[in-house]
UniProtKB/TrEMBL annotation:
<dbReference type="GO" id="GO:0046872">
    <property type="term" value="F:metal ion binding"/>
</dbReference>
<dbReference type="GO" id="GO:0005524">
    <property type="term" value="F:ATP binding"/>
</dbReference>
<dbReference type="InterPro" id="IPR036615">
    <property type="entry name" value="Mur_ligase_C_dom_sf"/>
</dbReference>
<keyword id="KW-0460">Magnesium</keyword>
<protein>
    <submittedName>
        <fullName>Mur ligase</fullName>
    </submittedName>
</protein>
<keyword id="KW-0547">Nucleotide-binding</keyword>
<dbReference type="GO" id="GO:0005739">
    <property type="term" value="C:mitochondrion"/>
</dbReference>
<keyword id="KW-0479">Metal-binding</keyword>
<keyword id="KW-0436">Ligase</keyword>
<dbReference type="GO" id="GO:0004326">
    <property type="term" value="F:tetrahydrofolylpolyglutamate synthase activity"/>
</dbReference>
<dbReference type="InterPro" id="IPR001645">
    <property type="entry name" value="Folylpolyglutamate_synth"/>
</dbReference>
<dbReference type="InterPro" id="IPR036565">
    <property type="entry name" value="Mur-like_cat_sf"/>
</dbReference>
<comment type="similarity">
    <text>Belongs to the folylpolyglutamate synthase family.</text>
</comment>
<dbReference type="InterPro" id="IPR018109">
    <property type="entry name" value="Folylpolyglutamate_synth_CS"/>
</dbReference>
<dbReference type="GO" id="GO:0005829">
    <property type="term" value="C:cytosol"/>
</dbReference>
<dbReference type="GO" id="GO:0008841">
    <property type="term" value="F:dihydrofolate synthase activity"/>
</dbReference>
<keyword id="KW-0067">ATP-binding</keyword>
Length: 494
């Protein structure tokens, strides 16, 4: 890879660890490295995804569908499509957020790319004391640096497609750099301004619910306004696809308002997907003002990994690629791509043979891990669990992020009085110091308040939880990151 050695990175430049929304700093980084978001991805394009829940799953399905091999008249001329994805937060290491064809980049490449971009930015701003690298407000945040460095890395490695998941909100999120340049705070020279606009293919809005209210507002309307800020105004050339919603009226109203404001003339709504008893999925899409949805694809037998809320994510991904004419040509190919999709920590069943340091006992216990971290996600998880064969009891391992109401979350999970609840705290998240755990004692108190009698917040309990005689173990919330994630999904790296 063409990157400087991270050991040579500018040592005195402080990368900020806070959460500070805005586009000026990330645009300065992109200016310094020649705007890879505009020069790269010309052989494929860019997809930009916002939403409260479902962004990661939709991204994973999109990547699999785009990378699905398709028949060619001459096999030797087959071009292997290269798909890059940028998601957040990371699972184990920050490099996990950058993937090429499903494989995370190495920590070495991750560090080197960030160091390269930081050095270029420092050189470009050194002569301006008002906005230079030592100016507190000019220094980029870790997330802003990740966005710019990942774009440079993906473009340098000649990725065909880039799929970018919004960090927080959308309108002022550092990923929102793919719209036409006049709306961005770009300070480049006139030669840079003459670069082509980003090759943005579509914007996507997944399910919207209440989350990050301190930053985005306390209502669905306010949050939807922030999410809709990624919509690009290029007539019918860049459609906005809206996935199935819990609050469709408020979300669609906010999307329509933004689309009219910026000049997006094609907003497509994905119908709530239904899977018939034989496993058939018909993906319906409506194009207002037309009322009746049109079926854009039919999967005759949905793969077994596409369950629960992931059905809506898969349907959204199919609808997106149908809208931009990038869908695999046969329904069998679509099903094959869906079957190969893996998104760790979301409705993830661990095999009975999985060996964990905490997995002991005479009888294998079914284990489900899900990263539901807000009430809407918790409700979706509960709905999926209710669709399974009934069990007499479940052992829950729960860790929550600060700002969540433990009582509301446990209620949304559908935890029963005869279940067991083990309350844990996740460790510090690298580069994200604002993400902190709820005190496990508060989670335990909430569990007891809803009538659960078998509750533990002893840190050692999680090490022996698998000895509890329960029919199910469910890990939920932020507990799926950090130490538990390392135990479950440790992956070899280059």
């Amino acid at each position: 890879m063409n990157a400087m050695n991270p050991a040579n990175a500018p040592q005195h430049v402080r990368v900020r660890g806070d959460l500070d929304l805005g586009l000026s700093r990330v645009c300065a980084l992109l200016c310094a490295i020649g705007h890879p978001e505009r020069t790269g991805f010309r052989t494929g394009g860019i997809l930009h995804i916002a939403g409260t829940n479902g962004k990661g799953g939709t991204t994973a399905f999109l990547a699999s569908l785009l990378a699905q091999p398709q028949p060619q008249p001459q096999p030797q001329s087959q071009h292997k499509v290269v798909v890059a994805t940028f998601t957040s937060p990371h699972l184990i290491h920050p490099a996990d957020a950058w993937r090429i064809n499903g494989k995370p980049v190495s920590p070495t490449d991750y560090d080197a790319a960030r160091a390269h971009v930081l050095a270029q930015w420092q050189a470009a701003t050194m002569s301006n004391p008002a906005t230079g690298p030592n100016h507190a407000h000019a220094s980029p945040t870790h997330f802003e640096l990740d966005v710019a460095a990942s774009l440079w890395y993906f473009a340098t490695n000649k990725c065909d497609y880039a799929i970018y998941e919004v960090g927080v909100g959308g309108r002022d999120d550092a990923t929102n750099v793919f719209r036409p340049s006049p709306v961005l705070p770009c300070t480049c020279s006139s030669s840079s301004i003459r670069l082509p606009p980003p090759n943005l293919l579509a914007t996507v809005i997944t399910r919207i619910g209440l989350d990050h209210q301190a930053l985005l507002g306390d209502s669905i309307q306010s949050i939807a306004w922030h999410k809709a800020g990624i919509i690009a105004g290029k007539g019918k050339a860049v459609p906005c696809i809206v996935g199935p919603q819990t609050h469709p009226e408020q979300v669609v109203a906010a999307v329509d308002d933004e689309a009219k404001r910026v000049g997006c003339e094609r907003v497509l709504l994905v119908s709530t997907p239904l899977v018939n008893p034989h496993g058939r999925l018909d993906v319906g899409v409506s194009d207002p003002p037309l009322a009746a949805p049109v079926c854009v694809a039919s999967i005759h037998k949905l793969p077994t990994n596409v369950v629960g809320y992931q059905v809506a994510n898969a349907a959204t991904a199919i609808a997106v690629l149908a809208a931009i004419n990038r869908l695999p040509p046969t329904n069998d190919m679509i099903a094959q791509a869906l079957a190969k999709t893996v998104w760790l920590g979301r409705l993830h069943h661990l095999p009975a043979s999985h060996t964990l340091p905490i997995c002991r006992g005479d009888t294998p216990v079914p284990v489900l891990v899900d990263g539901a971290h807000n009430t809407d996600g918790a409700t979706q998880l509960a709905s999926y669990l209710q669709s399974l064969a009934p069990v007499s009891s479940t052992c829950w391992i729960v860790g929550l992020s600060s700002g969540r109401d433990p009582h509301a979350m446990l209620t949304a999970f559908g935890i029963q009085q005869h279940d067991t609840v083990v309350c844990v705290e996740f460790e510090a998240v690298e580069h994200m110091p604002w993400v902190r755990p709820v005190d496990r004692a508060q989670v335990a108190a909430a569990a007891k308040a809803i009538g659960v009698t078998q509750v533990s917040n002893d840190t050692k309990t999680v090490q022996r939880v698998w000895n509890v005689k329960r029919e199910w173990v469910a890990g939920a919330g932020r507990v799926v990151r950090g130490s538990m994630a390392r135990a479950v999904w440790s992956q070899p790296r280059d």
